[in-house]
Specification:
This protein is mainly alpha-helical. The protein is built from 9 helices and no strands. 9% of the residues are buried.
């Protein structure tokens, strides 16, 4: 008898698989597994960064450790960084997806080019003849079969190359190279503007403490155990 957990889990999974978006996704994997895998991988990264961006912005707006005048500034930087990250990843993914095939042909022309294809077919036939390959197929048919096998290998290699380059372009180059190059100067400019409008927020804590110590209110304040330079227990017994 199936356990209650199994029964509930199977019903939930069964209900989810009937949703139209899930059915559409499954069909994409059935019809073109390689492209669907690349798209879902990049899509999951973009969604994760979007959720992270929203979380960081919310935390910055409600973080009491950040001065109130700077909260909007910090939140704006988090939002800018998140938007730049998402947009740059999508743009580089689309650009690299178009450049993959020409780049593959250029980088691996000696391995998968037309001359390489002819050479592989010729060498394979020579080896087969030397080994006394007895086959009902004639010489032309064998060349076609070898060529088809070569094309399948080339296609599989191209898909692997596309997957790796798309992932590197979006997850590494966009996030670790492009976004920091744009976000860092932008943050510096925004911070400079904020410091011009609120110079007191950029003042070192030591300077503030020194000003408070030199202020008339502090100079005229009675000495206590917290602001005395030295403490002499005999003073209270003096007449």
């Amino acid at each position: 008898m199936p356990s209650p957990v199994y029964s509930v889990g199977s019903k939930v999974v069964g209900a989810v698989t009937n949703f139209k978006p899930v059915k559409w996704t499954v069909n994409q994997f059935k019809n073109n597994f390689d492209d669907a895998l690349i798209a879902t991988t990049i899509g999951s990264i973009v969604v994760k960064d979007g959720v992270g961006c929203a979380t960081y912005v919310k935390q910055s707006l409600n973080n009491k450790e950040i001065p109130e005048k700077r909260r909007n500034f910090v939140a704006a930087l988090d939002l800018t960084n998140g938007v730049l990250m998402i947009v740059s990843q999508i743009m580089l993914f689309l650009a690299m997806h178009k450049l993959n095939k020409p780049l593959f042909e250029k980088l691996f022309s000696k391995t998968f080019g037309k001359e390489a294809r002819k050479s592989i077919i010729t060498q394979t036939r020579i080896i087969q003849k030397a080994e006394g390959d007895a086959n009902d197929l004639n010489n032309v048919s064998r060349k076609i079969v070898i060529g088809e096998d070569f094309d399948k290998l080339k296609k599989s290699s191209l898909k692997i190359f596309e997957f790796v380059t798309d992932l590197v372009a979006s997850a590494i180059i966009a996030k670790r190279v492009v976004v920091p190059l744009i976000a860092t100067p932008l943050a510096s400019r925004v911070e400079a503007k904020m410091n011009e409008k609120h110079p007191d927020m950029n003042e070192p804590k030591d300077a503030k403490t020194q000003k408070e110590a030199q202020s008339p209110s502090m100079q005229g304040a009675p000495k206590t155990a917290e602001n005395q330079d030295t403490t002499n227990l005999l003073d209270k017994y003096k007449s």
